[in-house]
């Protein structure tokens, strides 16, 4: 196997995007994504069975297009890579079966990789801020419809640690639910981000979950959820707030509530992430996941990183949302690090822990 | 030519079939298709783990290079969604990588093949393995357009049923000649026609089938569709110049998704 600059094809199908990407070492050659997002709009959230059906029909056309874009053939590829988790079980299954079939058909090695770590891997491509290198003291803040985590990355290929995560809803999920409460449609992130610009972020003081001393503790004696988040209480608070206006027969101040909700989410995400960075010696923070597109999250993260002396990297948006290039990018790192391919008998694992970089 | 057949509509299975395609659709041509090698799981939950290693082992066992597979056929269900997709995703990706033709076969046809191979008596006295003799029958009509209503078939018809979970069966009705008469459907066991029913689905609900006037054929009450038989069905159709389906899955059920209703206002 070429371990210098391996040509890797990566397949992603953990949620509602069917992604196929191609990288050569740390260079991106193709990033083709087919999304079933439009099919979920009327349900107000991703429906796993609809996503799985869409993956089945999209995977081969997406594969064909990615190879064409990269200008390579399947024969030339050094390795196949696929997301084996975490994600929706039925959705993961489609990508895993397709990737295994490609490995059988071509005799190429197959690398099953962790979706969350792959979000970090894509930030380490040549065009990213780190110029293909793995910086020391690297951390990652991942925020999307499916996840909210802060990670420490000692070695992207085999040593990743979970510092904190949501204990209930993902941030993007909270956005979707609140957007529905406010009648703003799906997906909630862009809808709330848009209308929040017209509202007063300090109109309502919504709770910041898990920030009480009993959860936080101190740096020396950390509480049980020092770097963790919870968004379900926030969602309930927004519902109560809307109900109070309705019960009083007053118009619901949608823009103010959206702005105040967004402020609460962004404030608690960034304050805890920066706290984790400071206390854990993280000097370089990478922001990833679909919610990285949120203007307020970027703004506040940038400001707080700057005042804490932490460098912030945000990959281009097409690489922040779920895609196959991130899978290929991480597998290429694993190969360059001397990692071994996965056994063909692995199963998709919907709750694969972040410490398992490969399966 | 060598066909790779895959079915994951219930258990996971794959098979290599050798057949000759020189007859060019001559309906009288002998069908000499044979199963070279096959594997099948017993459980219905490990498709994604076992299928690819199983296919790789078949190829190795037969010392076949990838280029020697000339066609792929895959069972398109009906079957539980996630398992069904495992086989179809595998087949589609293999066909893409090898650049070979890909076809679908309704999975229940594979089990109908096994029933016919076990021998349907031609005297109308009963189907293979049936409990007791079936009543005499008139010859089934060769075809009845569906717009004329539910056709009345002879008693030599039989049905294939597999487990659809949620207290339902996937089933289809066949004539004694193996021609699909009706289906596939997904219904509770009471929805089956009053004919002998073969397959693991029948074995789960013998009493309910009896209540509906159908009979569970015990010799087949654990039988599942297999890729080996699916491949033979495909080879027979190809030899006779009959068309095969594409690989669109026969889900038969919508996803369970509910469009959320309007939120109740607090008044
Ligand atoms: Zn993601």
Word description of this protein:
The complex is a heterodimer of chains A (about 350) and B (about 270). With about 350 residues, chain A is α/β, with parallel strands linked by helices. In chain A, about 40% of the residues lie in helices and about 20% in strands. Chain A has helices spanning about 35-40, 50-70, 90-105, 115-120, 170-180, 190-195, 215, 230-245, 255-280, 295-310, 315-320, 325-335, and strands spanning about 5-10, 15-25, 25-35, 80-85, 110-115, 140-145, 150-155, 160-165, 285-290, 310-315. A five-stranded mixed β-sheet of chain A has the order 3-2-1-4-5, sandwiched between helices. The model of chain A has no long low-confidence stretch (mean pLDDT about 95). Chain B is an alpha/beta fold and about 270 residues long. Chain B has helices at about 45-60, 80-100, 105-115, 200-205, 205-210, 225-240; strands at about 1-5, 15-20, 35-40, 70-75, 100-105, 160-165, 170-175, 180-185, 195-200, 215. In chain B, strands 3-2-1-4-5 form a five-stranded mixed β-sheet, sandwiched between helices. A five-stranded mixed β-sheet of chain B has the order 8-7-6-9-10. In chain B, a hairpin with a 5-residue loop joins strand 7 (about 170-175) and strand 8. In chain B, helix 3 packs across helix 6. The relative contact order of chain B is 0.20. Mean pLDDT of chain B is about 85; it is low at about 120-155. At the A-B interface, helix 2, helix 3 and helix 8 of A face helix 1 and helix 2 of B. Bound molecules: zinc ion (ZN). The site of zinc ion has 7 residues of chain A, from helix 4. Zinc ion (ZN) binds next to helix 4 of chain A.
